[in-house]
Specification:
Number of strands: 21
Distance between the termini: 60 Å
Domain ABC transporter: 3-240
Helix content: 10-25%
Largest sheet: 6 strands, mixed
Strand content: 25-35%
Keywords: ATP-binding, Cell membrane, Ion transport, Iron, Iron transport, Membrane, Nucleotide-binding, Transport
GO molecular function: ABC-type ferric iron transporter activity; ATP binding; ATP hydrolysis activity
Number of domains: 2
Organism: Rubrivivax albus
Strand order of the largest sheet: 7-8-9-3-10-11
Radius of gyration: 25 Å
Order of helices and strands: EEEHEEEEHHHEHEHEEHHEEEEEEEEEE
CATH topology of the largest domain: Rossmann fold
Protein name: ABC transporter ATP-binding protein
CATH superfamily of the largest domain: P-loop containing nucleotide triphosphate hydrolases
Bound molecules: adenosine-5'-triphosphate
């Protein structure tokens, strides 16, 4: 691995305080882009700062290309300026009195003039702003200024680039676009990078690997597909994508496990746990909006509580007569009114289950009235 982060802990208070980063481990191969995502205060920035050397890890080890940068056990702590790591922050602070080209060349004073100019030109071409070389930063848009900040960070050819919410001051449409553009620029320059965001679309657009953090812990590290379809924890399941949990029972059928849910049976599901994975097979099933199909021929009906137009589809929030809530992506030519009952059926590719959270209400046949 190019970057190795092994059981890294960062504490700001005393030994008793809850750590800002709690034993986080992950790795990045050379040229890979990693993204740390999670809600405010989960420890993303603290972990990034530890990699940069701006915070000292109180536990664990950080290494780049096999060389230890931090090791809490042996007391190694390399100063930030000795790590050859580039950084781009939200407030990218270009020098207002320098031209775009001079901003990019700022960290290259040690190079001979011709080499410096060639490097600046290469960076301008890389970020697509060669025509703006002589302009002042204030003559550029926010997105263009951010690209210059990126070019300035890449110019000294850092072996690792760290980016902390660099697009958060820009508007949403521009952000996703810039995330895709940034990915292309990093891939073209072969730069290994670690990016911090709380925005899923940005994370999906950028990351080869994404780490979801919650209360200082890195709950899962994987590609976007795995996080979405095989979330390791309830928190990851809730944080990534739309979905709900519904009580389910896994039972043994002739051909393998079957799953009973309030809105029908999942037959022959792939990657399904065996019934004895949970007490009496009772568990909570993750239902993504794309696991629920609108089908008026289905005997299971649900009432539309809310709907959100998303262009090619609606995101419907539905409630079954039994009280269960589910969500469904439905092609937008199926335009039903709020309050209407529609037919639904489950189509779950990946069965994702967790131990039952709260004891279920007694089933109808157990009640006296039943
Ligand atoms: N310099 C500091 N001194 C003390 N506590 C700090 C310091 N910096 C961060 N913290 C605390 O550490 C925890 C993690 O903060 P951190 O900034 O790493 O989270 P984050 O996920 O980057 O949040 P955000 O998305 O809001 O930037 C928080 O509880 C925060 O209050």
């Amino acid at each position: 691995m190019f970057l190795q982060v092994e059981s890294v802990t960062v504490r700001y208070g005393g030994a008793d305080a809850r750590p800002a980063v709690d034993s986080a481990s992950f790795g990045l191969a050379a040229g890979e882009i990693g993204v740390l995502i999670g809600p405010s205060g989960c420890g993303k920035t603290s972990l990034l700062r530890a990699v940069a050397g701006l915070e000292r890890a109180s536990g664990g080890r950080i290494a780049v290309e096999g060389r230890t940068l931090d090791d809490a056990t042996s007391g190694v702590h390399l100063a930030p300026e000795d790590r050859r790591i580039g950084m781009v922050f939200q407030d990218y602070a270009l020098f207002p009195h320098l031209s775009v080209a001079d901003n990019i060349g700022f960290g290259l004073a040690h190079l001979p003039r011709a080499e410096r100019q060639a490097r600046v030109q290469k960076m301008l071409d890389l970020v697509g702003l060669a025509h703006a070389a002589k302009r002042a930063p204030h003559q550029l848009s926010g997105g263009q200024q951010q690209r210059i900040a990126l070019a300035r960070a890449l110019a000294p050819e850092p072996r690792l680039l760290l980016l902390d919410e660099p697009f958060s001051s820009l508007d949403v449409d521009l952000r996703e676009h810039l995330a895709q553009e940034l990915r292309a620029i990093l891939k073209a320059s072969g730069t290994t990078a670690l990016f911090v965001t709380h925005d899923q679309l940005e994370a999906f657009a950028l990351g080869d690997a994404i780490g979801v953090m919650h209360q200082g812990r890195l709950e899962q590290w994987g590609d976007a597909y795995t996080l979405y379809h095989r979330p390791a924890t309830r928190f990851v399941a809730r944080f990534i994508g739309h979905g709900v949990f519904t009580p389910a029972e896994i039972v043994a059928c002739a051909h393998g496990p079957c799953v009973h849910t309030p809105f029908g049976e999942l037959d022959d599901p792939a990657e399904c746990p065996l019934p004895d994975a949970y007490p009496d097979g009772q568990c909570d099933l993750l239902l993504r909006a794309d696991d629920v199909i609108h089908d008026d021929a289905s005997p299971v009906k649900a009432q539309i509580e809310r709907k959100a137009f998303r262009g090619s589809e609606f995101l419907y929030t539905l409630r079954l007569a039994s009280g269960e809530q589910v969500m469904a992506h439905v092609p937008s030519h199926h335009d039903h009114a709020v309050g209407e009952w529609i037919g639904i059926r489950p189509a779950v590719d990946h069965v994702v289950t967790f131990p039952r959270d709260v004891p279920p209400a007694p089933a109808p046949h157990h009640t006296a009235a039943g």
